[in-house]
Design goal:
Elements: E1 3-14, E2 17-28, E3 32-36, H1 43-50, E4 58-63, E5 69-72, H2 86-91, H3 106-118, H4 134-146, E6 152-156, H5 164-177, E7 182-186, E8 195-201, E9 204-211
Parallel strand pairs: 3-7, 3-8, 5-6, 6-7
Antiparallel strand pairs: 1-2, 1-4, 8-9
């Protein structure tokens, strides 16, 4: 498979604290990578650097020209008091392909409808996000991440607030997405099958194993 992204000797420090210490790896087409490690070990930090949301202290990232990303942040990192509907949140996943405040086409609206249907939340399209359950909100964020059909999905603990049935639904959907998108997700579940396992611990990144 062709390489999508490669990072070399990434470092991140806060004062005297080293979060990432010269970590290097690459992601190729249709990779399915689960990133594990202790809380506070740098998993979210690495995802944010790859997503371009946080500059590293040192090191480099080289992406394939035109690489597109879909990003799902941690559940607790988003303010749900903002007056916006479920449909508008998912539609915002197409914003990077439009100018700010530009209108969306009917085709794009239909694209959102298809994603909501796949996620089994079509009935929530006009509902304000403030009243959603944790599981519903996770599906909305996932919809925003996948609606643009990106080359690489970056997902930070997407299985938070999901019961066993919800997790099964999530991973089945991600397997479908993996037919066209590489997946890098942070999770404490180290039993996901057919995956590459990375671990961030003590500032280091290592490939633990490939689970089949």
């Amino acid at each position: 498979m062709k390489e999508l992204l490669k990072f070399d000797n990434l470092c991140l420090t806060y004062g005297r604290n080293t979060i990432l210490d010269h970590v290097s790896a690459s992601i190729s087409e249709r990779d399915f990578i689960v990133l594990t490690g202790p809380n506070g070990g740098g998993k979210t930090t690495l995802l944010q650097i790859i997503a371009g949301l946080l500059p590293p202290t040192a090191g480099s990232i080289v992406c394939r020209p035109g690489l597109t990303l879909g990003y799902l942040p941690q559940y607790r990192g988003i303010d749900r008091d903002f007056p916006i509907t479920v449909g508008e949140v998912v539609l915002s996943g197409l914003q990077n392909r439009k100018r700010l405040f530009a209108s969306f086409s009917r085709q794009q609206e239909e694209q959102v409808d298809r994603v909501l249907e796949r996620l089994q939340i079509s009935q929530l399209k006009e509902r304000p996000i403030k009243g959603l359950s944790g599981g519903q909100w996770q599906r909305v964020l996932l919809g925003r991440a996948i609606v643009s059909q990106p080359d690489l999905l970056l997902l930070d603990e997407p299985d938070t607030h999901l019961d066993l049935e919800g997790k099964d639904f999530l991973y089945n959907l991600l397997r479908e997405e993996n037919s066209r998108s590489a997946v890098l997700l942070v999770s404490h579940d180290a039993t996901v099958s057919n995956t590459i396992m990375w671990e961030v611990k003590d500032g280091q990144l290592r490939s633990v194993r490939e689970i089949v």
